[in-house]
Amino acid sequence: MLCLAVIAACGGTPRLAVAPKAAVNLTGEWVLDRAHSDDVRARIRPMFARKERELNRYIQRAEEDGDTDEPIAPPADAAKPPQSDVNRKEPHDDSSTVQWLRRQQRIEAEAIIAFLSPASELKIDKRNAEYRFLSDKGEGTRRFVPGERSSVFNGFGGFEVMSGWEKSSFVVSSEGKGDNRIRLLERYTVLADGALEGKVVAHLPNLGKYEYRFLYRRRS
Questions:
Q1: Both 48 and 107 in a single domain?
Q2: Is 107 found in the same domain as 182?
Q3: pLDDT of res. 220
Q4: Tell me, what's the pLDDT at 34?
């Protein structure tokens, strides 16, 4: 549904090399080891539950004020209603606005969860200098040439993407552009036991910084 782009760390894009210091084989077909991977949904849902509680408190305060002539003012970081609703001339319908805000929060939560959740299956190919990541997330093939920058667009907006090597780890860094303020950093490392470890650091606007770890096993 949404293309998983990658992003820059808090202090900017890390210093990346075009090749690892020692030979690393990322290629092959990988299967997610769920038992040893973090549950993104369990980590993200409580934050959106907090945002919904904040919205409910705003609604309750507006109702207690008893000022029915003024529209409900949602939290500053809440999604904005469509402009057609804002500019319409008929009396303001607080109940429809509240329903819209709650629905948008749920849609946003599911989109973020889908965006950050790991693929169940991952195939990595290398063709000359280019690495190709193909997953079952429906995001298409992600192409990376270490040391080169590229642009990626998805449901969240545009990202500037940079990839390369940091010691024996393949790093993909993406930073949101324009209104898109998401930043992520993905790091892939082949461990001593042959498993592929994925670590993600995500900076999400109005939600904060989250770190996740995923583990993949080679398909036998």
A1: yes
A2: no
A3: 80
A4: 97
Statement to judge: residues 60 and 168 lie in one domain: no
Cβ neighbors of 171 (< 8 A, separation 6 or more) are 14, 16, 163, 164, 165, 185, 186, 187, 188
Per-residue pLDDT tens digits for 132-150: 999 999 888 999 999 999 9
Q: What is the pLDDT of residues 52-78, one digit of tens each?
A: 777 777 777 766 665 544 555 555 555
Residues with Cβ within 8 Å of residue 89, at least 6 apart in sequence: none
d(CA 58, CA 81) in angstroms, rounded, equals: 16
Q: How many domains does the chain have?
A: 2
What is the predicted pLDDT for the residue at 62? 67
- pLDDT (0 to 100) of residue 128: 93
CATH of the domain at 153: 2.40.128.20
Q: CB-based contacts of 25: which residues, under 8 Å, 6+ apart?
A: 190
Claim to verify: residue 33 and residue 55 sit in the same structural domain: no
The C-alpha atoms of residue 67 and residue 89 are separated, in whole angstroms, by 19
CB 146 within 8 A of CB 168: no
Give the three-state DSSP class for 138.
Answer: coil
* Positions in the chain whose pLDDT score sits under 70: 1-14, 62-95
Task: Supply the pLDDT for residue 187.
Answer: 97
φ and ψ of 91, to 5 deg: -55, 145
Closest CA to 169 of 21, 28, 6, 9: 21
Domain extent at residue 181: 28-37+119-218
The b-or-e profile of 58-78 (16+ CB within 10 A means b, else e) is bbeebeeeeeeeeebebeeeb
